[in-house]
Amino acid sequence: MRTSKKVLAWGMVLSTVMVTLSGCGSNNASTTSPTTKPVESAKATEGAKAGGTKLAGDFEIQYFVGGYGDAWWKQAIADFQKQNPDLKIKESAGAKINDQMKPRWLQGNPPDFVYIDGAGSNTRQMVTDDQLMDITDWLKEAKNVDGKKILDLLIAPPEEYKPGKAFAVPLVFGSWGTFYDKALFKSKGWEAPVDFQSFMALGEKIKADGKMSDYIHTGVYPYYINGALLDPTIIAMNNYDTSISKKINTLEKGVWKSEPVMKALDKIVQIRDKGLIDKASPALNHTDSQSQWLQHKAAFIPTGIWVESEMAKDIPAGFEFGFLPSIGQDKGGKFVANPYTSTVGIAKKAKNPEAAKAFMQFIFTEKQSKLWAELSKAPSNIKADLEGTNAPALTKEAAKFYNSPNTVVAPEIVIPEELVTARNNATIALTKGEITPQQWADRMEEATDKIRAKEKK
After folding, report:
1. What is the DSSP code (8-state) at residue 156?
2. Which of 118, 144, 170, 208 would you label with 378, given CA atoms 20 to 30 Å apart?
3. Which helix (H) or strand (E) holds 263?
């Protein structure tokens, strides 16, 4: 599970990179100041090689544990510890870590290094709140432990939450989408839809069959349907011009009432009014909706490619994950891949910033990219050939779309947390028939006006 940048040039990067690419902290803060010593021998650690110093002192890492699990984090941190035996590493992690650590961030006593993902986290908000270190100058020339420039290895570049400034680096490259069971479709003789019209036609057939719903979604967390259905459809309705994402991210006045957004909202209304949305959806969380989908209570579900890992214990025998980047494009149109990234950053008030930078240099490598794909069952944001790895078939299938000229890779929608909440509430109300698309847009413009007013102060 995840909460709630990239340009079309990503497609070129992904074509080369992803050919085979084919989610509890203690309140005891560390108070020991870091110390650095010159490297004394040729057997320096990898961290020392990258930074030119021997790392020591306390070093705290905060990371959210969700659909991707924590196997990669445990492995990466253990390996980093071996390379830096004088560091005292503390892990603050868990499914609720963002809420648990929030008081410390507000009190100015944060961990050193943070993985920003999961409910209650928002990179943009952390930048707005001046919680993350400006790493712009350091990152320009930063090399990983293999001697390669980190920026050259990234699929998605760091988002500029402030012009020309970098505060966080994308570690995870995920993708929203619509999922189905290939095995079920084969047994039923159903063809996976390639556009909105074929999706609706198949939906009518499924509805008439009466054995399952067409589309079930995570009503408790509406950002799933926003990310997998609404956002890519907005791009498609804007004639695949991804610049509208930037207009949304910069909170441009009137963008929520623009024609592409209104057309995308109308697609949701059409699905709703045809009775294709499972009526239980509004009350379901992510795992409940995914569980019902796995049990064939519904044919389609909007979620992310972490779903295979998150639901690993509940996958029925013979189930075969199918993936569609988007279903909102009109007949003859392209797929729109709506990726998201989860970032890592260094606290502005980090007590051991040198260790945090060294850890960043340690994890942004091809080796760690492969390990992430195998242990987290999803692609990282680091370029790597996964052909010889045990990366899951779903990850590789998703990559086929990214590599296709028939797919547009859209920038990520990154908006303030309070606007995320407003949009979630508006979308769930729309799916339930409580408001119209115009009222949805009115709500969003009003909420955005309030944020613009705050940012001007």
Report:
1. S
2. 144
3. helix 259-273
User: Does 92 share its domain with 235?
Assistant: no
Q: What would the 3-class secondary structure string for 275-300 be?
A: CCECCCHHHCCHHHHHHHHHCCCEEE
Q: Of all helices (H) and strands (E), which one includes residue 430?
A: helix 417-431
pTM, two decimal places: 0.69
Cα angle, residue 63 at apex, residues 19 and 45 outer, rounded to 5°: 75
Size (the chain), residues: 457
Residue 91: CB atoms within 10 A of its CB come to 17
From the number of C-beta atoms within 10 Å of its C-beta (0-12, 13-18, 19+), residue 388 rates as exposed
The pair of structure tokens assigned to 126 is 């952390």
Task: Dump pLDDT digits (tens) for 51-101.
Answer: 456 899 999 999 999 988 999 999 999 999 999 999 999 999 999 999 999
Region of 394 please: left (phi>0), alpha (psi -120 to 50) or beta: alpha
CATH number at residue 272: 3.40.190.10
Indicate the residue type of 95: A
- Same domain, yes or no: 227 and 372: no
> What tens digit of pLDDT does each residue of 22-31 get?
333 332 333 2
Determine contact, residues 228/178, Cβ cutoff 8 Å.
yes
Q: How many CB atoms lie within 10 A of CB 290?
A: 24
